[in-house]
Amino acid sequence: MNSSINEFRNNRTDYTVTAPVSMIFAVTSVIITSFILIIVLFTKPLHTVTRLLTCNTCLTSILYCVVQFNNYIYLLVLTWDRNDQSCRWRGYFGYLAMVAFIYSYVLQVLSRFFFIVLSTKYRWLTSFRTHFYLIFIGWIIILIIPLPAILTNDIYFREGELCWVTKEYELHSYYITIAYYVIPILSIIVINVMISIRIYLYRKNSRIQRHTRRKDRDIEIFRNIMISFSVYFLGGVPFMIYMFTDSEFLYSMGVISVTFAVTMEKLVIIHLDRDIRMTLKNCFCQKRTQVTPITINPTFLAPRLNI
After folding, report:
1. Are 278 and 41 in contact (CB under 8 A)?
2. Count of Cβ atoms closer than 10 Å to residue 128 Cβ
């Protein structure tokens, strides 16, 4: 099926170089992400709504890295598995992991919209209960979106290739582009614009004095979320350009850049979140209190003790 295209792709993509590098970044990301989850889980002051969504994004990061690692194992090691159905399931989980990560940021931005724009009128939107429901609904959507990967025959085993939908299936390719990238990115942009307008009005109106510190904190958290998302977004730029240029270099670069971006995104989270950073620093850089022995001079103590 479409053997000429597959042969051309095999001639230009050397996964024996790019895949191991991507796997190294994936393992690194899992380690860093696990530290963040452990710190938040066992540090009670960090049990906030914001960290709840951060942990949700961390879980999607681990899912993405594990799925990608597994796909590369099948590509490089378990080459005997040539079953189309098995390939479709790997493709489904691969797309699911991508969707989960990017939609987790949609939830984070939506949460900031609740805090910055709607919290005054609808206080219940900022509660833990609301955000648990938000995450639950988000995961249902995440599980549904990539279903065409296993409900159609558009993914099939190709020698030396990852289990993705090829460009020959134009309708499915357009669906992937719109549902996986365009809709969540546009949602983030639209919510970002609405929050930015509210922040502008908030700072312009000098009469607003109540809850200033909390509002500033919400704005800071929103800024940190957008910085973290920008790191991941930049990692996916080579893939997005490749879709229009069909460049070998950009495709190979994209295989590495996405997992690298996921790793860097976690380092950025640690850097921007002062509480997590300080907790992590205290865990690994805690100074030991040194006890210096004191020598007592008997001559000095003799008059006081009447010796």
Report:
1. no
2. 11
pLDDT in tens, 121-179: 888 888 899 999 999 999 999 999 999 999 988 888 888 888 888 878 888 888 988 89
pTM: 0.80
Q: Report the phi/psi class of residue 127: left, alpha or beta, with left for phi > 0 and alpha for psi in -120 to 50.
A: beta
Residue 53: both structure tokens together:
């969504």
Output the CA–CA distances (angstroms, integers) from residue 291 to 213, 285, 288, 295, 298, in the order listed: 42, 18, 9, 13, 22
Tell me the C-alpha distance between 261 and 26, whole Å. Answer: 10
Q: Compute the distance between CA of residue 35 and CA of residue 125 in angstroms, rounded to an integer.
A: 29
In this structure, the number of other CB atoms found within 10 A of the CB of residue 114 comes to 20
Q: Contact at 8 Å (CB) between 10 and 161? A: yes
pLDDT in tens, 21-50: 889 999 999 999 998 899 888 888 888 888
